[in-house]
Amino acid sequence: MPETVLAPPETTAPAPGALAPEPGPGLLPKVVFGLLLAFCLTPWASPPVALALGLVLAQTLGNPFPAFTKKYTAKLLQFSVIGLGFGLNAYAAVQAGREGILFTIASIFGTLVLGYFAGRWLKLGRVVTHLISCGTAICGGSAIAAVGPVVGAKDEEMSVALGTVFVLNAVALFVFPPIGHALALSQHQFGLWCAIAIHDTSSVVGAAAAYGAEALGVATTVKLARALWIIPVALGTAYFFKRPDVKVKLPWFILGFIGAMLLNTYVPATQVVGPWLVQLARLGLVVTLFFIGAGLSFKTIKAVGPRPFALGVLLWVVVSTVSLYVIVQL
């Protein structure tokens, strides 16, 4: 009887010139990520600490779950903002919002005009200039995400604008509280300054929470009122960029924040669970900032380039210094 010879299993060789698939993250980055995430849920973690831990992880071992953190960062922030509404009184919020409306209007339109001329001076593209200007003027990444489809922004243009804003957000979260203490700003003054001069809601709330409870209330209210300007700015963008057929979405989580604030003010039963919901929201914010830091790798920073980053820094410095001067003088 002839001997049966088993042939070795066939293997598919990569095509000539094809890139081999990148190996997935090892066990160590995953374990460290889990430990750091667990620490962010403890009372010892704060928004700046969480952001710093995420940044360190991104620059050393790398983020082992980039798709996960990218998917849940925005959602977690939105639900955290809604939860913070259970710690605010509607009457105080209206007063804070009323005071910040003039700052909001002046700073938004001033930033957009300054950004237009600064972008031309730096010889940047019209789309990138407008995205960075809108991100600085209104609410960072949320504004860029809303305006990007309106102007037909490419992925590269969106990445550059978002990278610029995220880097400056990280800097602001560490820099603003020490400046506020050095200048002896009141809780109200600091909260107002954060809402105007810091881009993303996450960093605004994080910096204000590090300064005090009153600063947090003022900053959150004024910033979310400011975020509503996404709608008129996006509509104006559609007009000037000659894209009248685009649809502008309402930031739904702002309505949730307002609803939570009204419940806390007018429904006594809500006030019993309100403090627990606020505490849960603050934990959510800490985790959000850890996710943001973990996603801000050196590759992301390097991809921004010097000229877009110069525009972002110029606008941020002007808005920060002018708004601080006006607030101190009032």
Automatic annotation (TrEMBL):
GO terms for cellular component: plasma membrane. Its main location: membrane. This is Conserved hypothetical integral membrane protein. It is a multi-pass membrane protein. The keyword Transmembrane helix applies. It is found in: Cell membrane. Pfam families: Cons_hypoth698 (PF03601). Keywords: Cell membrane, Membrane, Transmembrane, Transmembrane helix. The keyword Transferase does not apply. The chain crosses the membrane at residues 31-56, 76-94, 100-119, 131-152, 158-178, 190-212, 224-241, 250-267, 273-296, 308-328. Belongs to the UPF0324 family. InterPro entries: UPF0324_pro.
